Amino acid sequence: MTALLAELAGETNKSALLDLGCGTGSFLAQAAASGFSRTCGIDASPKMVETAQNTAPEAELQVGNFAHLPWPAASFDNVTTMEAIYYCPEPLAALKEVARVLKTGGRFDLVIDYYQDSSGTSSWPEGLGFEITSLSATQWVDLLAQAGLEKISNRRIIRPQQEADPASWKPSVWFPTEDSYLAYLEDGALWLTGYLPSSVPNQ
Fold first, then answer.
1. Record's PANTHER family (predicted)?
2. Which residue among 58, 137, 162, 165 is buried most deeply as judged by most CB within 10 Å?
């Protein structure tokens, strides 16, 4: 969240932002504080949306499905999603919806810890108790392209090295071994950015 907000702070057009999987609303509140004049969010959990409304009272929030976004086409300059899209059983449908609601030239950012190249997070489905979408960074890039986005960048967010202190690790369903925790820190979060083309070629 910190890395993404720092980069978006340099955006010249900070009109409207949509966050998929808004959770507690913390990102929306910080986005509004950074200058976005309109902030919207969607989450599958009514409880999370209620919490987010308290955290970000200025935001327009909806309970719903990423594959069926309740906003008109070309509504947003920016769409973001953090630690949420792997819960979606139809990621390509969700990404096509992202492209639909973005304005031409609009920007999409996807940040996730759980992806195939992150060896330390392989136990997460067991911890959750259900399957979640497992794709490699290359596969996610391909899906963004299939959805119609371009200028796609593929990078990592690496956490500060001090977080790798063994004393900060305790066994859990998320990180059952110290090696899994250290691998998680070393691999970092996957951060993809793509843009809706300014002009769409004829189909």
1. 2-METHOXY-6-POLYPRENYL-1,4-BENZOQUINOL METHYLASE, MITOCHONDRIAL (PTHR43591:SF24), METHYLTRANSFERASE (PTHR43591)
2. 137
Q: Which residues of 74-103 are buried (b: 16+ CB within 10 A; e: fewer)?
A: ebbbbbbbbebbbbbeebeebbbbbbbbbb
Minimum mean pLDDT among 6-15, 42-51, 117-126, 145-154: which range? 6-15
Residue 202 has pLDDT above 50, yes or no: no
Query: CA-CA distance, 173 to 130, in Å (whole number)?
Result: 13
Check pLDDT > 80 for residue 165.
Answer: no
**Are the C-beta atoms of residues 54 and 23 closer than 8 Å to each other?**
no
Q: Domains of the chain, with CATH numbers?
A: 2-195 (3.40.50.150)
